[in-house]
TrEMBL record:
The keyword Transcription is assigned to this record: no
Transmembrane segments: none
Natural source organism: Mycolicibacterium hodleri
Broad enzyme group: lyase
SUPFAM superfamilies: NAD(P)-binding Rossmann-fold domains
Entry keyword set: Lyase, NAD
UniProt-listed Gene3D superfamilies: NAD(P)-binding Rossmann-like Domain, UDP-galactose 4-epimerase, domain 1
EC number: 4.2.1.46
Residue ranges of domain NAD(P)-binding in the record: 5-301
Catalytic activity: dTDP-alpha-D-glucose = dTDP-4-dehydro-6-deoxy-alpha-D-glucose + H2O
Protein name: dTDP-glucose 4,6-dehydratase
Family: Belongs to the NAD(P)-dependent epimerase/dehydratase family. dTDP-glucose dehydratase subfamily.
Pfam family, one: GDP_Man_Dehyd
């Protein structure tokens, strides 16, 4: 049994991880979350009080973080500003949480000798051409495009430096695009599903040729647990499930699953600096640590996700109007 501190555990992937840990281990979890617009306590409802504790606070609050880190065996660091479109509008919270927040955490784990797993993204590697046979590996040079991905890249580099210079016991994972329950309606898949549920046409940026490498959030969680338990200190592991799809295909699939015509969507203003393609080669994680994804069939995982949003309007409806008002201002 481990005592885990999970930062950002009321967000999309963090809350999925907390559910996964409760279901698959006997670890105890303390969630530290600031409950920004992206955090939602309802995502943690139903979890047992004797396994999961919640602390509302800022990961950049060094005093608070020091106290929490001192009382756990390991930290899994999800807390971040995570949405590219927001980072193009106002980068400042991205600098504060993603860089200063990670710094505060690193100083605390350094002081207490606590194990850290840092959650990052494939976006640190920039993007690939559509016809490039290569995929991202742990050796791909960093080349981030947006304020979001550059602050994630910066946080990864801080972790690497703290490992090398101070002997901090950390690992890093860089994962591809997640989908599943509890994802904020600002993100591509939930935005389109909830648009259709409201009788609004999905919104595709540009021509929809951009490719993302989709992985179910449960597979991300199982990979993180595997790295936490078996990963080599100082190493980076890429997490992906061979799920490349272009955005047009994903929108058409959502429309098909929801009984709408395949062309019932709008093309809207493209994202500035829009990365063309992400693709992950997760051979190292699979060969070295024996991890395998369980959601091989994207269409089945997507159908389950559509059902989840259909059944949980109470969870997503409070954020929908404000999100769409923001996009409307951007012409998106
Ligand atoms: P999210 O935006 O849904 O959740 C982020 C959570 O962090 C929220 O609960 C929010 O309240 C909390 N938070 C924000 N600032 C905080 C602060 N200063 N102190 C404490 N808590 C704070 O994000 P997500 O999609 O769940 O992403 C989680 C992590 O996974 C991020 O580090 C992100 O970079 C990484 N990641 C995401 C994806 C993806 O597809 N969504 C893929 C790879 C990696
Ligand atoms: O690759 C991992 C990253 O995946 C994570 O690091 C980020 O936190 C996460 O937000 C995600 O980033 P993306 O920018 O790829 O995700 P998003 O859901 O915003 O968009 C997915 C694709 O869909 C992207 O090409 C932009 C496009 N898009 C998005 C929205 C919101 C649309 O076409 N229409 C939309 O309405």
């Amino acid at each position: 049994m481990m005592r885990l501190l999970v930062t950002g555990g009321a967000g999309f992937i963090g809350s999925n991880f907390v559910h996964y840990v409760v279901d698959h281990t006997d670890h105890h979890v303390t969630v530290l979350d600031k409950l920004t617009y992206a955090g939602n306590l309802a995502s943690l409802e139903g979890l047992p009080d004797d396994r999961v504790a919640f602390v509302r606070g800022d990961v950049a609050d060094a005093t608070l973080v020091d106290g929490l880190v001192g009382s756990v065996d390991a930290v899994v660091h999800y807390a971040a500003e995570s949405h590219n479109d927001n980072s193009l509008h106002d980068p400042s919270p991205f600098l504060q949480t993603n860089i200063v927040g990670t710094f505060a955490l690193l100083e605390a784990v350094r002081k207490h000798g606590t194990r850290l797993h840092h959650i990052s993204t494939d976006e640190v590697y920039g993007d690939l051409e559509l016809d490039d046979p290569a995929r991202f590996t742990e050796d791909t040079p960093y080349n981030p495009s947006s304020p979001y991905s550059s602050t994630k890249a910066g946080s990864d580099l801080l972790v690497r430096a703290w490992v090398r210079s101070f002997g901090v016991a950390a690992t890093i994972s860089n994962c591809s695009n997640n989908y599943g329950p509890y994802q904020h309606v600002e993100k591509f898949i939930p935005r389109q599903i909830t648009n259709v549920l409201r009788g609004v046409r999905p919104k595709l940026y540009g021509e929809g040729r951009n490719v993302r490498d989709w992985i179910h959030a449960d597979d991300h969680s199982s990979a993180v647990l595997t790295i936490l338990e078996k990963g080599r200190i100082g190493e980076t592991y890429l997490i992906g499930a061979d799920g490349e799809k272009d955005n047009k295909t994903v929108v058409e699939l959502i429309l098909h699953l929801m009984g709408r015509p395949a062309d019932d969507y709008d093309h809207v203003t493209d994202r500035a600096g829009h990365d063309l393609r992400y693709a992950i080669d997760s051979t190292k994680l699979r060969d070295e640590l024996g991890w395998l994804p369980r959601y091989g069939d994207f269409e089945r995982g997507l159908a389950a996700t559509v059902d989840w949003y259909r059944e949980h309007e109470d969870w997503w409806a409070p954020a929908k109007d404000a999100t769409e008002a923001f996009y409307a201002e951007l012409g998106q």
